[in-house]
Amino acid sequence: MARPPPLQELPPGYTPPARAASPQILAGSLKAPLWLRAYFQGLLFSLGCGIQRHCGKVLFLGLLAFGALALGLRVAIIETDLEQLWVEVGSRVSQELHYTKEKLGDEAAYTSQMLIQTPLQEGENILTPEALGLHLQAALTASKVQVSLYGKSWDLNKICYKSGIPLIENGMIERMIEKLFPCVILTPLDCFWEGAKLQGGSAYLPGRPDIQWTNLDPEQLLEELGPFASLEGFRELLDKAQVGQAYVGRPCLHPDDLHCPPSAPNHHGKQAPNVAQELSGGCHGFSHKFMHWQEELLLGGISRDPRGQLLRAEALQSTFLLMSPRQLYEHFRGDYQTHDIGWSEERAGTVLQAWQRRFVQLAQEALPQNSSQQIHAFSSTTLDDILHAFSEVSAARVAGGYLLMLAYACVTMLRWDCAQSQGAVGLAGVLLVALAVASGLGLCALLGIAFNAATTQVLPFLALGIGVDDIFLLAHAFTEAPPGTPLQERTGECLQRTGTSVALTSINHMVAFFMAALVPIPALRAFSLQAAIVVGCNFAAVMLVFPAVLSLDLRRRHCQRLDVLCCFSRPCSARVIQILPRELGDGTGPVGIAHLTATVQAFAHCEASSPHVVTILPPRARLVPPPSDPLDSELFSPGGSTRDLLSQEEGTRQKATCSSLPCARWSLAHFARYQFAPWLLQAHSKAMVLVLFGALLGLSLYGATLVQDGLALTDVVPRGTKEHAFLSAQLRYFSLYEVALVTQGGFDYAHSQRALFDLHQRFSSLKAVLPPPATQAPRTWLHYYRNWLQGIQAAFDQDWASGRISHHSCRNGSEDGALAYKLLIQTGDAQEPLDFSQLTTRKLVDKEGLIPPELFYVGLTMWVSSDPLGLAASQANFYPPPPEWLHDKYDTTGENLRIPAAQPLEFAQFPFLLHGLQKTADFVEAIEGARAACAEAGRAGVRAYPTGSPFLFWEQYLGLRRYFLLAICILLVCTFLVCALLLLNPWTAGLIVLVLAMMTVELFGIMGFLGIKLSAIPVVILVASVGIGVEFTVHVALGFLTTQGSRNLRAACALECTFAPVTDGAVSTLLGLLMLAGSNFDFIIRYFFVVLTVLTLLGLLHGLVLLPVLLSLLGPPPEVVQMYKESPEVLSPPAPQEGGLRWGLSPTLPQSFARVTTSVTVALHPPPLPGAYIHPASDEPPWSPVATPAASAPSSLSSRGPCPATG
């Protein structure tokens, strides 16, 4: 074997012989993973080279495709319907809601407008005539609202909900009743005469002033009209409803009022009423029987004495009920007032919305500025407006966020050295991500996925932060290309080294968001699917289009043009770099200045058992001593780049040079290599890291126990607004919810009356159900129906006993007696429908309180037609609705006697009020109790389900945590499989999943300490945190996996090459989220900005602190092992020839050093690109950094980079 000359003088043209060294020996068990990764990265290399060859075409076609998809935003639909957003897809609530809409339609029976009055001084008693007077002032101002639309004036009396208007055959009386019939207004003012002032109806009769509720005495009016019309049936109707004198028989709140009627109890004494006593037990509308407003509906913050008597209250509430748009449309359809305005349901909705907005505005401004009370107003339109505002895209915030990201990307990628600066690449990358986000959202719109508040408020910023991470990774890897990479292969080399990481993170992001779609809430499912699609578009843009941008920038750098201002050349591109020689160890060396214009030849000696390196340069260069090694020389690789070999003499001042400032040479990679990694990988630092993260995990486990379920509307509405003040007052004082117990079809109502009564009893006994007053019968249709039958049976018995009704006639009997007569003779047989012999042999209600099944549906038709007030109060909402039937006791023909039976019921409901529901646990308890009652009824043959806002929006919490755990577990398993598949190392994948699980637990615990409640939104973020966390962990893990040496060395090398892109990615994510902090909605700040910011910081800490420590302790063995077979001898070069340059060398070298000789040629005209082109100066293959244990083995078997593969 030929031996090289002694190492004394090395002529410039010396070519060392080939080394008899085995460059790489693969561990046998790892051949398959390396081969598979090499094959995959070979595909990425080919892709990158192809993109670089056709970069212009790829860029044009990519922008064209993404731009075309972005046009899909024109058909985007923003969903603001709460039911469509929050009702669990495919759940029993969804099925029940569908059943309800199928039978009754889409709209509720009425909409509510509310006024809440509270004292400015918290805790002050509000039950005073003065406070009630202010409440009257605000309510009266609101009730007088008028809006002009379509050339018509619309006031409360035209659009309010009126319950149970009776049908009267007398046309004059019917028109008068229609004008006078009161609106349904639940107000504490109804305990006083002043409640009549809120009713705006009026009627005119000759010879007397306008009839209004402030002066209407129904009993007196019927007496006056008696001689002119037969009103006996109407009189009985009013008597049954217990109308009495209506409002004129109630005390006046201000007896000094000139209009206070003489019939008021305190009119003559002029004594102010005892407000607490009058309000005790609640108030009544114009009907004492059917319109009872319980205390809990009117008063909040109630205090009682030991005997249970009302003493004081802290809040008052009035509720105005309006018709639904469909009801308003039907009411005025064909009316002379609307025949010329193109009346439609849409216009009816516009009228209602305009009136509601004006109602809220005037009510809030009704009280003087110096008032001791405050009014909070709210309407259903107010809630819709909040949701629309919540869903609007803030163009200013979106533009600000993207401009901030543009500035950051440009500044962080700018360099003093034009050849390394990438400011324009940063700008183009951010703009490309913005286009990818727009195209992803456009694709979602084309796929029919509706947008919502989460999409418009959060996703543009979250997607920006996530997408820019990969931009930084590729740009960083592109500048750190391995020495000797041909120009035409630079993009391929970049994708080969980073493509795996980009694919891993993007795939895990998509998997995470797809797993988050398991949460069956439509709003969050849509958000998760949209996020997954947007991440997919980002992935395509980063892997296909952004490399084309890098390729174009490479041409700019090769032509030595300025960054950003690429039309200009850099000023120092044609200068010659001068290198001042420097004396070495023995004081001998060349004297004078030599111009290095062609090549620099370097020879390195390295030891096979340690990473010490001595680099020997020809006389025209100087030796740069290696830095001090904080970890016993284990963390530093000799295979840096030629900038580690060449240095400008500080004393040279004769000619201008292109030297950079010292501060410009500092970088995150420099910090990671020389400060962070040496400190982190010390034994005491590892112990401290493990203790601190263990303590954080323990605290987070405790914090997880503090997390409560729930999402109140006050969390969504911006704080400091009038809407938030109303919702806060309502939640504190009036936590009441209207619900209903729906009975379906599929069973026989007539034969299941006992089961229906039992169901009602079980439901009424629930803790959350507000019980009716002891003096009032249950407010359900079955009770009202039965009581009505018992009433007409009693009237019939009395008329029969007195002889006014006989087998053949009921003309002389009372109206109720005649109704009972007609019902008793019904047989239900189509052939023989009447049987007069049953008049004395049957009862309408038997001794057990049940209605005879054969009379059930016939009697239902009669009750619905004859007792409209009772039907309206019951809120039965029968489907199919019973047929109309008009009663005339004087008509005893066969047709009038035959009463059509109602069809078997498929829908009916019992109304209830739930109270005391403050926390989510209260709602869950009420829901579980209601479901248990329905299940018990189901075993008795009655099909029923509860409905109402608590069941629509809170039932999700019954299984929310189960869905959360299921999604997290599935996602962690999927993440493990994806990482194991692409990394081809299950042990590394397991460590990644362990860190991700810790991040999720810690984020959940921090939510508990921050007071953030668990709802579907945090669940989606927690599930997505697994995918987002991969961004911070997989790069480090992959860098560790593909390097050589000890675990400490590999962890340090991985940190050096991934610290900068991971940190830049985290900062870019935080910048993307920063715009969320400027949202007007506290909900966005708390539930998205705070949570996602904490997640990003946790990811940064776990990825760059905890994971390297775990890898240094538990990491897998290296995939590539470097071994040397050359005899470790120190060779001495021959004596120099005369006139030759002498190269000084230390007198002795360690005998264990083995020789590695290489020739490096650096082109200096023009100055080199980053990772300068290096060509071998001899027939010997160029020396690769993997020839030392400290060198990094790239992820491909032939890669030439000095850093570990980041992808």
From TrEMBL:
Membrane-related topology note: Multi-pass membrane protein
A GO molecular function held by the record: hedgehog receptor activity
Residue ranges, compositional bias (Low complexity): 1185-1207
Subcellular compartments: Membrane
Entry GO CC: plasma membrane
Signal sequence coordinates: none
Keyword Coiled coil: no
Main location: membrane
Biological process, per Gene Ontology: negative regulation of smoothened signaling pathway
SUPFAM superfamilies registered for this protein in UniProt: Multidrug efflux transporter AcrB transmembrane domain
Superkingdom to which the source organism belongs: Eukaryota
Annotated TM spans: 395-414, 426-451, 457-478, 499-521, 527-552, 687-707, 963-984, 991-1010, 1016-1041, 1084-1114
Keywords: Glycoprotein, Membrane, Receptor, Transmembrane, Transmembrane helix
Residue span(s) of domain SSD: 394-552
Region (Disordered): 1175-1207
Similarity comment: Belongs to the patched family.
NCBIfam families assigned: 2A060602
Entry protein name: Protein patched homolog 2 isoform X1
Organism in which the protein naturally occurs: Leptonychotes weddellii
